[in-house]
Design goal:
The protein is an alpha/beta fold and 247 residues long. Helix content is 41%, strand content 15%. The chain has an eight-stranded parallel β-barrel, surrounded by five helices. Strand 7, helix 10 and strand 8 form a beta-alpha-beta unit. The chain is globular, with a radius of gyration of 17 Å. The mean pLDDT is 94. Bound molecules: 2-phosphoglycolic acid (PGA). The site of 2-phosphoglycolic acid has 13 residues, from strand 8.
């Protein structure tokens, strides 16, 4: 089955570096049947789209605002992304939630606007370390999904991608074991059904995914792909992860 290999560059790689990365990674990705996605910073989106050309790499934004235009200093809109040929967008990454204070209500508005515009949202959910230790993981994920998917119709939800990223595993070098991640992700599907969403939508794992653990994670039944931060910044390591089947 095709998997999704997605790189979230966060606040790294300006336009020049984005172009250089893509030119270098294109030949390295040859032969991978998986779907490749890259999320550069907003200013690098035009350079990234141009550098991709007709290669099988999709470009997504890391964030977007829900209003189509107006007095929202510092924000970018969905029509702006569409104009660039950007079809994917991360929503609710834990850094947006934690550092920039984006709450469930705002994320729901973003999710609805992105879906309505025909773009594919990659909706990020995940528990903090303390929540996991207190046995509240599923309660937290359930709240995030319920609030995020409020008023999203079942049919629309079929275009959604979910990224499960335990916050304690992001950028820490601590990965959930493949079995741990699979167990939690397996429990997300019934949650989606109970919310009237399409339970077969792709669910990605994120949090210190790297070439050494990509294969073990991707061989799990409920892991449909990876959302990769640090290890997506170098073309070689990103490409190695896209070739996980050969490792
Ligand atoms: P990481 O980041 O791979 O550096 O842990 C993942 C993410 O935040 O999407």
């Amino acid at each position: 089955m095709t998997k999704i290999i997605a790189g979230n560059w966060k606040m790294n790689h300006g336009p020049r570096a984005a172009k250089a990365f893509i030119e270098k990674v294109k030949p390295l990705l040859g032969g991978s049947d998986d779907q490749i996605l890259l999320f550069p910073p907003a200013v690098s989106l035009p350079a990234a789209v141009e550098a991709v050309g007709d290669a099988a790499i999709s470009i997504g934004a890391q964030n977007v605002y829900f209003a189509p235009n107006g007095a929202f200093t510092g924000e970018i809109s969905i029509p702006m992304l569409r104009e660039l040929g950007v079809h994917y967008c991360l929503i609710g990454h834990s850094e947006r939630r934690r550092i920039f204070g984006e709450d469930d209500g705002l994320l729901n508005q973003k999710l609805q606007a992105v879906l309505a515009a025909g773009l594919v949202p990659v909706f990020c959910i995940g528990e903090q370390l303390q929540e996991r230790e207190e046995g509240r993981t599923m309660a937290v994920l359930s709240r995030q999904l319920q609030a995020g998917l409020r008023d999203v119709k079942g049919v629309e939800s079929g275009r959604l991608i979910i990224a499960y990223e335990p916050v304690w595993a992001i950028g820490t070098g601590k990965t959930a074991t493949a079995a741990e991640a699979d167990e939690t992700m397996g429990a997300i599907r019934p949650l989606l059904s109970s919310l009237g969403a399409d339970a077969s939508l792709p669910i990605l794992y994120g949090g210190s995914a790297k070439p050494e653990n990509a294969g073990a994670l991707l061989r799990q039944r409920h892991i449909d792909g990876l959302l990769i931060g640090n290890a997506s910044l170098e073309p070689e390591s990103f490409a190695e992860m896209a070739h996980w089947r050969e490792a």
